[in-house]
Specification:
The complex is a heterodimer of chains A (264) and B (304).
Chain A (H helix, E strand, L loop, with lengths): L14 H40 L6 E2 L2 E2 H33 L1 H7 L4 H19 L2 H8 L11 H22 L6 H14 L12 H7 L3 H14 L3 H30 L2
Antiparallel strand pairs in A: 1-2
Helix pairs in contact in A: 1-2, 1-4, 1-5, 2-4, 2-5, 2-6, 2-9, 4-6, 4-10, 6-9, 6-10, 9-10
Chain B lengths: L4 E12 L2 E12 L3 E5 L6 H8 L7 E6 L2 E3 L3 H5 L2 E4 L11 H11 L7 H11 L15 H13 L5 E5 L7 H16 L3 E5 L3 H7 L2 E6 L2 E6 L1 H8 L3 E6 L2 H13 L4 E4 L2 E5 L6 H7 L4 E4 L2 H9 L5
Parallel strand pairs in B: 3-8, 3-9, 6-7, 7-8
Antiparallel strand pairs in B: 1-2, 1-4, 4-5, 9-10, 11-13, 11-14, 12-13
């Protein structure tokens, strides 16, 4: 009879721990993929169709792009936000406070940082896939993307990683589920409205334009547009760096706060 | 350093704000034994178990689990132990088999052995015929058996059980006792906090009694009985003034008593002199002394 894990010293980051957390997610996903996919794909698509055709009938061209193309590329960021931040916030909160699932996982050889990373990686993988849905709809309505479009899943993944960690961090900050209302209204809604998704930022007041520079979603929108219509290496590296810094900061905050919540 | 103790706790202190949940705890659990951890609510039992998995971090003191210092090497220790929590934290959206399969991954069971590990755990917990049932369709007893099965998928050397049979009917409790007893027979070390004194008496090689975060007794059940309650108790019934009178007479003669609702028990009744028996009246109803008598005498609480 052998005892698992007894033969060797376990490292700080164990691929097996991440694989375990991801297996949990995959098992749940196999059961719930229709509802998960519906929520993550349909909502941004509705935004795309409503804005694309609603405003599109009033405004034909924005920043040199057809409005449907402008929104089609912008809504990728909205899809990423819905898939990652909302999941991180709600799912993490309920698993921690109501289901006790994290207590069970942490009694196994899994540490808090591995749990957080596993959860965030799963959300960002889903973001990478679901983030492409609005683009496919836009293609159906005439969008002709350039070869850089293959980078969109990667951009959605990196953005999703930061926002999943952002959601996990918020789930550990809020005292009760009621506080989610404040977060959605005061944080998440402004984030996706002031990101250049539905209208160009240069129509906003100067202060709002400055504020948008620290909005990670704005950098995601810019990167996606450039990937689809033509990369601009210097500014795109800046946008990518902003997304990576965001993910790094959120990683630190999420792990620290979750550790406080889970380990007493 | 090799040790014959699966668990060593030395001078551990744990505060929650102003509350001192564990207060200078010293406790050893020899390898291959079952230790029953008894104590009233708030005695520090659950905190002690969380300290062993590093889900709670001690303010002071040293903890070694399976030869690994905790929390610095807790991951290594957790890989070799199974934990059955007091509160059900199964994933109710998944099936019994899926719940177990996930934990074979988390516990690093090699790929080729995972299916067999799940089947063995299902068999141990007598859940084979419910393997494909969703957890929310299981009875309370089955869910508790599944929690135990989940803790066993990786052949742990140490199992921590936090109130394993709380809230279950007597028949299910007996089934779980058989399961726990089977583990002990296989040489698995068991640390079990329990609300039920009978449970500790039946399953535990040693019983540790905690009160206010400290250990107030630690011995095999028979030795605890001999030291604190003797072989038999004389139980007297009557109105409160009569019970108070019996208590006063027993105390005056140097005997310990235990009040239980409408009765009072005089412990070590086998040593009771005739003069006291006469003074008390009919000599009372004789019964064997129990671990519950010991528990009440030591903690002053009627419930573990």
């Amino acid at each position: 009879m052998t005892t698992a894990g007894s033969a060797r010293r376990l490292r700080r980051f164990e691929p097996a721990a991440l694989a375990g957390v991801l297996t949990h997610e995959l098992t749940l996903f196999k059961r719930f993929w229709p509802s998960n996919t519906f929520a993550s794909v349909v909502e941004p698509t509705i935004y795309l169709l409503a804005f694309g055709f609603g405003f599109g009938s009033l405004v034909a061209v924005v920043d040199g792009y057809r409005y449907i193309d402008f929104v089609g590329t912008g809504v990728v960021a909205t899809s990423v936000l819905f898939t990652s931040a909302f999941t991180g916030l709600f799912q993490t909160f309920f698993r921690r406070t109501h289901q006790g699932i994290y207590d069970a996982v942490l009694a196994a050889p899994v540490d808090t940082h591995e749990l957080v990373l596993g959860e965030a990686l799963w959300s960002s993988l889903r973001s990478g896939v679901y983030g492409c849905a609005p683009l496919l709809v836009a293609v159906a309505f005439g969008l002709r993307p350039g070869p850089g479009v293959v980078l969109v899943p990667v951009i959605a993944f990196v953005t999703g990683l930061g926002f999943a960690l952002f959601g996990i961090w918020l789930s550990a900050v809020i005292p009760s589920i009621d506080a989610v209302n404040y977060i959605i209204s005061a944080v998440l809604t402004p984030l996706f409205l002031v990101a250049g998704t539905f209208f160009p930022l240069d129509r906003l007041p100067q202060w709002a334009q400055h504020l948008a520079q620290v909005n990670p979603l704005y950098h995601c929108v810019e990167l996606v547009r450039h990937a689809v219509f033509g990369l601009r290496p210097v500014s795109d590296l800046r946008h990518l760096a902003a997304l990576l810094v965001f993910a790094g900061v959120m990683w630190t905050l999420a792990v620290r706060k979750m550790r406080k919540r889970l380990i007493d | 350093m090799p040790t014959d103790h699966a668990i060593e706790i030395r001078g551990v202190v744990k505060h929650y704000g102003a509350i001192r949940a564990v207060d200078g705890l010293d406790l050893d659990v020899p390898t291959g034994t079952c230790l029953g951890l008894l104590g009233p609510n708030g005695a520090g039992k659950s905190t002690t178990l969380r300290l062993l998995t590093a889900q709670s971090i001690a303010d002071r003191g040293e903890i070694t689990v399976l030869g690994h210092p905790v929390p610095s090497e807790s991951k290594q220790a957790r890989a070799q132990m199974g934990v059955v929590p007091q509160l059900d934290n199964l994933n109710v959206e998944l099936t019994v088999r899926q719940n177990l399969s996930i934990f074979t991954r988390l516990y690093r069971v090699p790929r080729g052995e995972r299916r067999a590990a799940v089947d063995r755990a299902l068999q141990q917990a007598q859940l084979t015929d419910r393997a494909d049932s969703k957890v929310d369709k299981l009875s309370g007893g089955m869910r508790r058996r599944l929690l135990i099965a989940r803790a066993l998928v990786h052949h742990p050397r140490l199992v921590l059980l936090d109130e394993p049979t709380v809230g279950l009917d007597p028949q299910v409790r007996q089934e779980l006792w058989a399961l726990i007893d089977g583990l002990r027979a296989q040489g698995v070390t068991i640390l079990m906090s329990t609300h039920y004194i009978e449970e500790a008496q039946r399953l535990a090689d040693d019983v540790a009694v905690m009160s206010h975060g400290t250990l107030i007794a630690h011995d095999p059940p028979a030795r605890l009985l001999a030291a604190h309650a003797g072989r038999s108790a004389a139980e007297f019934y009557g109105p409160p003034p009569r019970l108070a009178e019996i208590e006063a007479l027993a105390w005056a003669a140097g005997f310990t008593t235990r009040r239980t609702g409408p009765s009072v028990s005089v412990l070590r009744a086998e040593d009771m002199p005739d003069s006291l028996a006469d003074a008390l009246g009919d000599g009372g109803l004789r019964r064997a002394a129990s671990l519950e008598d010991v528990f009440v005498v030591l903690t002053g609480a009627e419930e573990a």
